Amino acid sequence: MAKFIMDNLKIYTQHDIDRLIIHRKGETKLGEKVAVLSTWEELPTTNAKFVLLGIPEDIGVRANAGIAGAASVWRPALTSFLNIQSNRFLNGGEVLVLGHFEIDEPADSSIKGLRDKVAEIDALVYPVIEKIVAAGKIPVVIGGGHNNAYPIIKGTSLANKKPIDVLNIDAHADLRELEGRHSGNGFSYALNENYLDNYLMYGLHQNYNNEAILSHIDHHPKLKAVFFEDILTGQDYSGLFDELGSIIGLEIDLDCMENVLSSAETPSGFGVNDIRKLIILRKANKFSYLHICEGATRMLDGRVSKLTSKLIAYLVSDFVKANISSV
To answer: How far is the C-alpha of 28 from the C-alpha of 186, rounded, in Å?
Structure first.
């Protein structure tokens, strides 16, 4: 794997995990059962099917004129997940906690400097995702901004040697122009570079997608969108999920959910249980990865929430349980 002078992947030891576990007599937590990696050579042979990875950065959000905060959620979310009970429903041995990317702030904080830095993050992330997928594992990535969809899609595509399909549950299409990398154009770059095939956007908000993007969706055969306003009428669009191929990435942008702390926090959106139900009911689909992004526990503007980390722990545990129950 390429060496990076500044940014790097911190691989966790069992000691790193143990420091986050809250022990209680008579109970066993997931953190006491999860696997860790000593060498990359161990990855294909580990019993764990899911590889948990953090990208705690909000450079991509700021490069898209958003509010900083997405870098705050990785460690609290991991702590919440590790302290779930290990029991008959989820043991913990199904998951390997790989670690997180340590990403330095760019020296140039201009929009161009931030976007150049996002391209560097892309180059750091995609080889790790490619290696995980090539080993027959399923990455579970907690962000970070939605800019990281691009390197995750790229790494998954390269490992499979073909473009992949993606289901994105999101208020925004993230199909902005190829103007330098940021959180609003990850899917544009993935399409342009032929890593993304069919792209289904589920829950877009009519108020927050510009006309150029709407027209692009209308005229591109690989793009399909379901608007949240149409879902509100009671129409069932779940059949569209079945039209996706055999290699599918699942993207969940937490700004699609009402009152979840994020740069684009919304009072109107999916409820927590709507998304949990969707994950559980889609267990027949063998998703190639899960990417949860844009959530925060603390925003630069002072907003805070202790619930975002527990929400992510629910979504990750639902995803793992749904996949292992469909084997």
So the answer is: 39
